[in-house]
Amino acid sequence: MEDSGGVLVGQAMGGDGPNLTRWSPDGAGPTARIARFEAGVRAVCPRYGGGALVVGERSGAFVLSRGASRLRPLPGAEPAVHAVATAAYAPVAVLAGTVIQLLSESGEPTTIPLERVGAVSLTGDGSRLVACDLDGPRIIHLDIEARAHAELEGAASPAAVVTVDADGRYAATVGRDTRGPYVWRLGTGERVELPRMFPHLGGYTTAAFGASGARLALGMATGYVKVLDLDSMRWLLWVESAHGSAVRSLAFTPDGRRLLSGGEDGRVLIWSLSQGTS
Hints:
26 strands
């Protein structure tokens, strides 16, 4: 994700050296080595007002302030956190562990009565979330204020990734067995019929929405990187073998003009959506 002074990159594996680093915006290399997590970094999410929330594998949740080079524990967060999501337009974060915690900088953490959640994503205003079941194909759409939830039907396998567009119109998942993507309209709960996806050996591994609009980025086990505009059903980016192996993470810059992709080949690439090049 993009941060003041560069791009934050978290590596999924542990090791002797730092695995949370800040890179220069042009992708030339690391400019700051921030922290080392024994078992690796699980998630890095932008934080409302600047900075980021960082979740380590089996080590809890932390705050990185804008431009800072030192982490601090996230107040009120339980230690067994395996997923985190933040709202684009409100100081709200949601953590999934043995329970779901909703954290707001204006008040005490609250617990949401959903268990066995594998991944979560928040709408831009923090009013609704979409979560996937840890063990099955169940996808849950929750109105946080009303504490009411409904299931989104049609996924054929447990989800590895769930993402919601900032305006709260669409939700998308990619299956743990790389099946998908599956997309729903949150207003009606209906599945969206996607254009021909041209399935390739290996399937889809990750997905992400931008901070505005209905642009859905998709990564594949074969290294492909794609961006689909859901309103026009037009492909904005389609790059074959962008990475030498599976794509594991995707993130749009705040202005939506560029896309960052991280792969198992150890590279972080920055794509211009207007030019279709890295």
